[in-house]
Amino acid sequence: MSEWRLTTFAVPAEGGKFTRTYLWYRPNEQPRLELGLIYLWNPDVWRFVGNYMVATESDALPSVTAGFAFQDTFSERIAPYVTFAKHFYLDEVTFEPYVGLVDRADESHVHGISGLRISHGDVFVGLQHTGHELNAYLGAGFGDFVGSIWVGERQKYGVTFGYRF
Q1: Please, are residues 161 and 140 in contact by the beta-carbon 8 Å criterion?
Q2: Is 13 helix (H, G, I), strand (E, B) or coil?
Q3: Exposure of 25 in the CB half-sphere (CA atoms within 13 A)
């Protein structure tokens, strides 16, 4: 069955400036493909995003995913990226590190990106480096619902609510 995800991320202290809603679709016929639509609440703009898992993870090798997003919330510049991810297990805890590269059109160099998500059951915690700043998050899933709290390097707090259908 195809999968849809609807997620909203908001930074309350910014008065909606960074609020965005994502609608992701993963077709059953192409489970390696993800297509998305992002609505940026302020400045009232829609953006397309997507990625494709070029190689699936094996016992010895990480998965490889290539995709495109937008350089930042307010830009129309596309930022292509590639990531390498691997899962590791310790009893009931899952460690999901990734590393990658992103090319931002208005900068003269490619940035390294990375992250680590640690999960136990429906609870997860993680770190994400965007190439510019470090973010930390804590969240939990409740059936098809998910929620998390984020804090950025610049001490901006955010909340995320999502639903999978």
Answers
A1: no
A2: helix
A3: 7
State the first-to-last Cα distance of the chain, in angstroms, to the nearest integer: 10
Q: Are 149 and 163 in contact (CB under 8 A)?
A: no
Nearest to 57 by CA among 101, 80, 88: 88
Instruction: Convert the pLDDT of each residue in 79-131 to its tens digit.
Output: 899 999 999 999 999 999 999 999 987 788 899 999 999 999 999 999 999 88
Q: Is residue 33 within a helix (H) or strand (E), and if so which, with residue range?
A: strand 33-40
Q: What is the pTM of this model?
A: 0.89
- Judged on CB neighbours under 10 Å (0-12, 13-18, 19+), 26 is middle
Give strand pairing partners of 51.
Answer: 34, 67
Residue 16 tokens, joined: 């909606």
Rounded distance between C-alpha atoms, residue 144 and residue 126, angstroms: 20
* C-alpha to C-alpha distance for 163 and 158, rounded to whole angstroms: 17
- Kindly tell me the burial class for residue 83, based on how many C-beta atoms sit within 10 Å of its own C-beta (0-12, 13-18, 19 or more): buried
Report the run of H or E that residue 65 belongs to, with start and end: strand 63-70
Do residues 21 and 7 lie in contact, with contact meaning Cβ atoms separated by under 8 Å?
yes
